[in-house]
Amino acid sequence: MWRYLFSRITLFMATSLVMVAVLFMASGQFPVSKAYSLSGVQYPTLEQQQQIDQDYQLHDNQLLQFTAYLRQRLSGNFGISSNSQQEVLEELEAVLPASFELSLFSGFIAVFFGVPIGVLAALGNNKALQRSILAITLTGYSIPVFWLGLTLSMWFGVNLGWLPISGQINLLYEIEPVTGFMLVDTLLSDSSYRIPAFHDALLHLILPAVTLAVLPFTLVVRITRQAILNVMNQTYIRAAEARGLHTAKILLRHVLPNALIPVIKSIGLMLGSFASYGIVVEVIFSWPGVGSWLVSGIYQRDYTVIQAGILAVSLLIIFLSILIDLLHTAINPMSRKELYASN
Amino acid sequence: MPRIKIYQEDHIASPMWRMWQTFSANPFAVIGLWAVIFLLILTIFAPFIAPYSAEMQDQQVLLLPPSWDPAGTVEHFLGTDDLGRDIFSRILHGVQLTFGMSLLIVAASLIFGFVIGSLSGMMHGIKSSVLSHLLDALLSIPSLLMAILVVAVMGPGLNNVFWGVGIAMVPQFVRAIHLAVHEELQKEYVTAAKLDGANSLQVFWYVIMPNVWDVVIIQVTMAISAAILDIAALGFLNLGAQAPSPEWGAMVAQGLDNLLLAPWTVTIPGVAILFTVLSVNLVGDGLRSALAPIRN
User: Fold this and answer.
1) Half-sphere exposure of B152 toward its Cβ, with a 13 Å CA cutoff?
2) 0.90 exceeded by the pTM?
C-alpha cells in the first residue's frame, strides 16, 4: 500500500507539473505581451516592469522562465486581475468556497438519492418501474445542462415563484464571511436574523444544486444498478441466501459494500464533466463561484484570472481523482493485487 | 451449381451478425439508430430542405409563436425569433454545426487517440507510462476549461471549439484504447500468436485489434454525445459559435433575452439538442448491451 501511495504521489506531482507547463506555454501564446499576461499589470511603471522582468526572468531562456513561473505560482503570486486590480489569489480564495458548497451539496443529493434508486432499479419486482427509471436516467444524461437550468428557473423561479434563481443569498442579509460556506456562515453570524438568513441561503442553493446534481445522479443510478446486478450473480450471495439470511441483511452487508466500489471509481472519472457542468450552472444562476469568475474573466480578457482559475480547478480535479483512486484501492484489495501483478 | 450442404449443423452466425441481432431486438436502440440516420441525412441535405436561409430576417413576423399555437402560421412552422428569423430553418441549418461538428471532432480525436493509445498500449515500461500519463494531465482539464484556454489564446469562434473540445477529447480515447490494448496483451491467445512467430504489428492488427474495436465503438458513441453537449454549452456561454450563427447552443443564448415573452426560442433548440443526444445515447446503450455478451 505504501508503495502504491508513493507512486500515486509521484504521479500527482508529475501530472501537476505537466499541467503548469501547459498553462505556461498557453500564457506565452496569449495575444498580449508576456509581462502583462503573467502579472496582470497592463501599463507598468518602470519599477514594476523591472520587478516583473526579475520575477519571471523574462530575459532568460524558456526553461529558466518556466522555473521562475513555477516558483512565483507556488509562492502564491498569481499576479493581479487587470480588471479589478485586486490580487488574483485573494479573489480565488473568495470564490472557491462557494463552488465547494454548491458541488458538495449536489454531490450529496446525487449519492443520497442515486444509490437507493439504483438499488430499486436493480432489485425491484416492478418491470415498468425499472424501465421508467432507466428511461429517466438516460434522458437526464442527455439533457443539456444550461437548458435544464433555464427551464427549471422558468418554472420554479418565475412561473411558480417558489425559489430564488440568482445568487447565493438575498442582498438584504449582510453576512460576514468566515468559512466562505454561506450555509455555515449564516449560522455562525451573531446577527438577529441568522435563522431567516440560513433559510434564505438554503432556498438559493436548491435550484443550482438540483440542476448540477442531475448528471452525477443519473450516472450513480446507472452504475449502482449495473454493479448490483453483477454482484447478485456472485456465488457468495447465493451462499448467503442459502444460509437463510434476511434479504435486507444480505443487501446491506454483502451486496452494497461490493457494489459501491465501481460507483466510487466512476465518481472519480466523472469529475471533469462535473466541473464543466458546474461552470455552466454557476453562470446561469449567477452563483459567485470559480466558474462564473472564470467565465467573466474570459469575457473581459483577464489573463491572470484565466490562468489562476484553470490552474486551481484542474489541480483540484487531479488531486481529487488521485484521492478517489487511493480510496478505491484501499477499500478494494482486488485492485491492489492486479496492480502488483502488472508490475 | 447449387451449393452443397455438407454439414448437419446450422449456419454459425458471425459475431457481427449476432451483435446486430441482439441490437435490433432492443426497440429503443433501433429507434435511436433511425434517429441518428435521420440526423445524418439532415446533416447533408438540411440546407436544401430548409425553407428559408438561416440569416433571413422578416420584419413582419417578429416573435411569431409555433404553428400549433392559435397565433402561429404554417409558413413559420416553429415560429420566429426576435429578428423575424424562421426557427425551423435555423434548427435545420444548425444540424450541420452542432451534430456535424461533433462528428468531425470525434473523428479527428479518434485518429490521434487511436495512434497514441495503441502505441502506448503495445509498449512496455517507462515509455508506455510516459505516453499514457502525460495525457492524464490533459485528461484532468475539463473540456470546457480547455476550450476557455483555447479561446483565450485564439479568440472565440466555432473553429476554436473544434480545437478546444478536440484537445480535451484525445486523452479519453488514448486512455480507453491504451487500457484495452494493454489488457488484451496480457492474455494467453496473444502469447500463442507470438509463439507462432507473429511480429508485433501482426499481433497488434490481427490478434489484438478485433477484440478492441468494441471498446472503440462504445467510446465513440460516448464521445459524440459529450461533444454535442460541449459544443452547445460553449455556444451558450458565447465562447463558441457567435451570435448570428444557428448553432443550437448559441440559439438558446440568443433566445434568452426573450425568455419570458417567447419561451419557444429557448425551448425548441433545447429540445433539438436533447433529441440528438438522446438518440446517440440510445444507440450507444444498445451497442453496449449488444456487445456485453461478446466481451464477457
Assistant:
1) 30
2) no
